[in-house]
Design brief:
Bound molecules: protoporphyrin IX containing FE
Keywords: Membrane, Transmembrane, Transmembrane helix
Number of domains: 1
Number of helices: 4
Order of helices and strands: HHHH
Helix content: over 70%
Largest sheet: none
Number of strands: 0
Distance between the termini: 47 Å
Shape: elongated
Strand content: under 5%
Low-confidence stretches: 1-15
């Protein structure tokens, strides 16, 4: 027995946009901003994997009794710095969305 929510999703899927087609926004500049937001989110997601892999590799190296060179310890700082920048951007997104829509209606 499907839940009320799943019925709603199925119905809106039939009546709404066709699968695979992009959602249309009110203006092309809004669409560009939206694509940029998606790009930053993907960038943040993949960077988090790279960061995690580098940190894990350092721990594994230490675990097998090999002391890595000093610069190896600094390596995670590169993806971490980019994670901070993209993360702060993602954090600001909901507020920027309100600001953007506020400006449009003003
Ligand atoms: C260091 C500063 C960081 C900041 C300020 C930050 C901030 C954020 C914010 C605001 C979001 C969006 C949450 C939402 O959906 O509303 C996010 C998503 C995410 N963050 Fe971070 N983050 C940081 C670091 C990291 C690190 C170190 C990792 C993992 C190693 C990480 C992994 C992720 C992942 C996987 C997502 C979900 C991305 C997606 O929706 O596809 N972040 N982060």
């Amino acid at each position: 027995m499907p839940s009320k929510t799943s019925i709603k999703i199925k119905q809106s899927g039939k009546q709404g946009r066709q699968a695979g087609r992009p959602i249309r926004f009110r203006s092309s500049s809004e669409e560009v901003l939206m694509n940029w937001d998606i790009w930053i989110r993907q960038f943040h997601r993949w960077l988090s994997i790279i960061f995690t892999a580098v940190v894990a590799a350092i721990f594994i190296t230490l675990g097998v009794g090999v002391e890595p060179a000093y610069w190896v310890y600094l390596m995670p700082l590169i993806p971490l710095a980019l994670l901070i920048l993209s993360g702060l951007y993602l954090f600001a997104l909901p507020y920027a969305g309100r600001w953007r829509s506020g400006r449009r209606t003003a």
